[in-house]
Design a protein that fits this description.
Elements: H1 3-13, E1 17-18, H2 20-23, E2 30-39, H3 40-50, E3 55-57, E4 65-73, H4 78-84, E5 90-98, E6 103-111, E7 117-123, E8 151-165, E9 170-182, E10 185-189, E11 192-199, H5 207-214, H6 224-232, H7 242-253
Parallel strand pairs: 1-3
Antiparallel strand pairs: 2-7, 2-11, 3-8, 4-5, 4-8, 5-6, 6-7, 8-9, 9-10, 9-11
Helix pairs in contact: 1-3, 3-5
Length: 254
């Protein structure tokens, strides 16, 4: 990892903590998401300037937390194609393992035709690789495919800092140390940071948004699922993602 990575981690260690129980009151399961892609030196500068404006999630004495995610799709890649084709209503299905709290959630993220993100989820005792024996009535009624056909397609690992500001009803996730994979193949992005601002209604009147603007960072449409699929399934249509993929490859090449 880079010196900037360690600088970010050291700064986060000095921030005021927030517990998992507290931050669950700011779940924002129905929200607007805005994402930004940065290099680690930019993040190191930003986190230093905003460290006193937010509390950071700490679980079992660990910050930032460790996450492992596996995404699912149908045999004909219906969800990937829905994202690539820009359908107004689209979904992602995944399980996410929160390693430090030892929780595993099976989640469906739905993007509505109002550009809102709605998350539905249930807990799992262990990771799964199929849905054939699962109860799926909790899934959104807008899903048009048979969940029993879903299969794992790509995975990722990363460390996440979750920042909270109850006054502004703002929750921010910062992902670093990202690795994308399919089966045993792995592509690492040590210089990449993804910031996601989650608000009920997006506002630039927040310390993080102001610092991102100061760094001339602009909102970007980036999906770990879509990026991974485009990288590891090169035969799939990916014209929509090519500019972003070129930029991400530059993060690896330096």
């Amino acid at each position: 990892m880079t010196d900037y990575f360690q600088q970010v981690v050291d700064t986060v260690e000095q921030m005021a903590p927030i517990s998992l129980a507290e931050i669950q009151r700011l779940a924002l399961l129905d929200r607007l998401d805005v994402k930004f892609v940065l290099r680690m030196h930019q993040l190191a500068h930003i986190i230093t300037r905003v460290q006193h404006n937010y509390r950071v999630l700490e679980i079992n004495g660990v910050r930032p937390g460790r996450y492992h995610t596996t995404y699912f799709d149908t045999p004909d890649f219906a969800m990937y194609h829905a994202h690539h084709n820009g359908l107004r209503v689209r979904h992602k299905v995944r399980w996410r393992w929160y390693l430090d709290s030892r929780l595993i959630y099976l989640e469906v993220k739905e993007k509505t035709n109002r550009e809102r993100t709605i998350k539905s989820r249930v807990t799992l005792p262990t990771p799964i690789d199929h849905f054939r024996e699962l109860e799926t009535s909790w899934m959104p009624p807008t899903i048009t495919f048979d969940p029993r056909t879903l299969r794992p397609v790509v995975w990722n690992r990363f460390r996440r800092m979750t920042l909270a500001d109850f006054e502004r009803q703002e929750r921010i996730t910062i992902d670093i140390g990202l690795e994308f994979g399919r089966d045993e193949r792995v592509i690492a992005f040590p210089d990449l940071a993804i910031i996601e601002i989650k608000q009920r209604k997006f506002s630039l009147n927040s310390p993080m948004a102001r610092e991102l603007h100061r760094q001339q960072a602009h909102p970007e449409h980036i999906s770990k699922f879509c990026v991974s699929m485009a990288m590891f399934y090169p035969d799939l249509k990916q014209n929509r993602f090519k500019p972003l993929l070129r930029r991400l490859h530059a993060f690896v090449e330096g």
